Records
---
Amino acid sequence: MITLCRATERRHVQRGNQDTWLTFFPQDGPGPLAVDFGFMTIFNEMRFPPNGGTAPYSHDEVEIITYVHKGALAQEDSSGSSGVIHAGEFQYMTTGRGVRHKERNASRNDWVHIFRIALHPSEVGLDCAHEQKRFTTAQRRNVLCAVASRDGRKESLRIHQNVLIYSSILDPGHHLFHELLLGRSAWLHVVYGEATLNEIVLTQGDGVGVTIEPSVSLTVQEKTEILLVDFGPAAN
């Protein structure tokens, strides 16, 4: 089964100088995206102008993976933690109730462009934690490079939920195949470029869910970057 979400179908939210495109918006209640991807609560694309940022805000307990595609993002929280995520870096963060965060573009000249995935925690009471790693273009070229996983495979960020997150930068003409083990599903997002999956042409900002299928298989028409989230059954 294929669930398609075109870039233009995402919700676009402007708060001050921040632009956000939301693929999932669970506040609307149950919908087609919540059935098989219910413990992925957020898949957002965000842009901040030079010096732009957010006011302090808080999360419920959640696991967050942030990917900086372009620019640099500065973060700090009420626990005293702070740092900068640069282009090509992925950050894993667990948040607890009552911890407040704020973030801003670390550049005075360039926009920052990020992607953010949030997952329901697999258990209650996870300690607040941060981990950050760079994955080079060479590591991600024409392969599915694991950037986050429950077992920390291939030096990926270690998460608690039963999820694998991959990043890939694909050359024109490349064919990508990813097997889905029994009971698993996937969400694929096109960061930029153009690719065909099951005769569906996907372009920048498009997302597609794959369930009750043996694999994800796509062919690239031009240089393309994707993020792929492979889900197991939601943890109890």
Note: The first helix runs from residue 32 to 36.
---
Amino acid sequence: MIETINPATGEVIERIALMEAPQIEMKLAEAARGALRWAHEDFSGRGSLLRAVAARFRLERDALATTAVREMGKPLAQARAEIEKCAWALEYFAEHGEALLSSQATPSSAARSYVAFRPLGVLLAIMPWNFPYWQVIRAAAPALMAGNVILLKHATNTTRCALEIERVFNETGAAEGLFETLLIPGKEMGKIVADARVAAVTLTGSEDAGVSVARAAGENLKKCVLELGGSDAFVVLSDADIEGAAKTAVTARFQNNGESCIAAKRFIVEDSAYDDFLSRFAELAAAQIVGNPMEERVQLGPCARDDLRKAVDEQVSGTIERGARLVTGGRSIDRAGFFYEPTVVAGVLPGMRMFDEEVFGPAAAVVRANDLEHALQLANESRFGLGANLWTRDIALAEELAGRIEAGNVFINGMVASDPRLPFGGVKKSGYGRELSSFGIHEFVNIQTVWIG
């Protein structure tokens, strides 16, 4: 059985049966048949379905958001925003998918030649719990518009969210096999990846999960896209707007309870701006309203699981033991559920846990940089390379520095976020491949050369 637990109370929400072998086989067979049908659906038909799903998401926004809050603990307002973003992405690819996938005339020795983009078939999507709707739709919208079908393996603690997404697709007219959900343990995924009916794999998750899936995909010669962890640098130079940087920093670190791969995690501040930034950042962090995520006023809910809260606490205490200074927070909150105080730790150095590891929860590491060059060195001194923030009033300098930052996304005077119009993904241990935009929709197609003599 899958047991889902409300992280705000620690109580069991529901128990859902895992699928047995005949059910898994049925899902794979349905997906394979659905892929054959959907590949021949024209762009108008594909777009109509995506628009219908978007409309249903908006219609059921509050109910869907409530399910996410109950299963993983994000504040209700943020869950509603996640549903709206899903609808936006579905509508974006419904509108622009045909143009992004139109054949490209390419002169050659032929009388005529062009490049066409054909669907691959069944895309296995292995998705995490932290954005239980957005991560799925971010992968599914472009893939479905390209003519593929989705076989979803969601995180077990957001199983009801997975089933709700499947229901929405089914109730808006999706044909059998177009969007199927597998309720199976993670240890079974190697068999699914190896199944001949699965054409490709996309995963958003941990570094360890990425290695496991990449190994299975490689052994079976299947394309995969990996969006893994991050320890994003938030670099503040001496001429930055400190007030603006501090306000954005609080959102960038603590939004979604700090449980986001693209959350800013290492705040690297040039020496002359360090004290001012730290003081304002810590003040704003401590002022956040922590509590029941179903309450409108709450800004920070619980960690999604108790083991995640314990991991954050160990990273914070381990960093302080090595000489860093606790500025605010640093403790679990004595109440039901998996709550942890919004935490800021200063004087963090390379070699300390909060610098070297990904902190997946409401705790921020503030790092002092001697100068600009030292700040860049610290930003790149990470095995991750998902996103980076850079704060300075000198935009020309910022654009030059962006080229020296080892990350898939660099946001200047703003917060790293995914956007359907822009490619999203990382380098180094943050994975490979891209989601969203023209780059993402081309990840899971057969880029086919057609040559006419």
Note: The chain has two domains: 2-228+430-452, 232-419.
---
Amino acid sequence: MLREALPKIVTGTLPGPKAKAILDRRAEAIPKGIGTAYKAVIEKGEGAMFQDVDGNIFLDWIGGVGVLNIGYSCPECVEAVKEQADKFFHSMFNITTHEGYVKLAEEMNKIVPVKGDKKKSMFVCSGSEADENAVKIARNYTGRPNIIVFTGAFHGRTTLTMTMTAKKAYAVGMGPFPDGVYRAEFPNLYRAPGNMSEEDAIKYYINKLKEIFIEATPYDSCAAIVFEPVQGEGGFIPAPIEWVKAVRKICDEHGIMMICDEVQCGWSRSGKMFASQYFADAGCAPDIMATAKSIAGGLPLSAVTARAEVMDAVTGGTIGGTFGANALSAASALKVIEVMKRDDYPAKAKHIAEVGMKRFNQWKDKYECVGDVRGLGAMMGIEFVKSKATKEPDAELVGKIVQEAMGHGLMLEAAGTYSNVIRFLCPLCVTDAQLEAGLEILENTIKTCAK
């Protein structure tokens, strides 16, 4: 059974003949701008594994870039979608109400850790749309134009979210960009200036944020501060809780909305259903949360949740979209919530993190090229450098590791401002044997490529 299989390459080299033929057709039919980093053509997937059209079996540590926390082809989600498909595919929600949307909103309002006793949720299709709607809601509620985002941030590929995104490789030739978006330094403790202690580094980054209100936007013109509890594309950098407390205090004192972008770090990945739960437990919950990716097990869906007074202040007709909480996606999402609660997916993430971080820290001590390991739950990153002393990023090494590992059946993806971080986004249903196989492939690959 593929769900229990281990990585196996049967074609010797990649891509195999069938995959190559399809990739050649892709090159002819599809814009180069979409990009393709991997010579893989999937035929079917189960759990943390997929099989390509040539019969090669891969362990997937990318998981659709965080979409497959519940795994490929979760049987219960498949059945839920089939059952809904027998009734109807779609009903635009602001035309005809369907109960799936209502039930999903009710579930989100129970589990999303934002400020307020009474909450409301809305749905769109992608992480970019969720982030953009979160900003629209904050601007509408506060009556203010500006937002603050951070270095290392990734928020999407719409015009607004490209502006919010730090790495401008994602926005080449796409300007002009909208005004009112200002950038502060994210608290990357590994790359803090000098040899600061963690405490001093957090103070430094808090002060850098406060400077934005002097040099970029006054407090009373700022609608929201937007950040990822764990940066994704930025290199899997967790926001330190003391820094989050300071952000929350600034927001409370000046009527600013704190928005958490949990598009990638949500849905059990962090060791809780949402990483913002750690903030809520520490008394610094966000005002608005955007989430997507793993929400519906692979179907397109995203959500924005906030307290009722914030959501109900929004001008009618300014938020939403045609396919938000499409009936099939809503059915799958309801099943995702049920299964993740029942099978304690946050505990699965914690177990994976315990196994993975133990090994990663051993590699940090063992290999000069491993500069830092970090993460929250099973959202883990390994930063590769040319020297521990200089911390010079080594993107070339990471590129070699990604390609070498693929040749042994392990799918990896790079991240980080300098593309020198290997990120771990394996489905949380991975078996212990599969996890061990992946760790062995990765360490052997590091040895080979670092020579």
Note: The first strand starts at residue 42 and ends at 46.
---
Amino acid sequence: MEIVLASDHAGFTLKEFIKNHLKSKGFKIKDFGTFNIDSCDYPDFVIPACTYISKCKLPTKGIIVGGSGIGEAIAANKVKGILCAIAFDEYTAVKSREHNNSNVLSLGSRTVTSNLDYACKLVDLWLSTPFSKEIRHIRRIKKIQNFEKTGRYPKIKTKKLK
């Protein structure tokens, strides 16, 4: 599996640490930058990385890193076909795969790097967790994909309270 990486200046150091960690595990890496700690704008790196992922025919996942990971996730989710989730602990890393089938993981270098190895643990958990394929999760993801494709949201079927 190929892993696509991208970061801004605030995420550069963590991105590089994760890159070395993944290379040591034998993953093929495609790094979209940034390539230094000079101030830059995360959309310039995240959007091309996620566009690449969305068009890739082979199994590909992405890991994006910023100061908080929030802006990066917002930018990533603007790209058709991307399901990006922010993880800040083991629970969110696992659930973003099990329930949401995320194909991009966003990390905040200022939220998970009190220990760089912990950030790599989150990456490993995310990469090793399969999508549960439960009907309720498939149904929810299909609703998101349908909205992405058509711009229409599903009608909600609820009973009115009297």
Note: Residues 2-150 form a domain with the Ribose 5-phosphate Isomerase B; Chain: A, fold (CATH 3.40.1400.10).
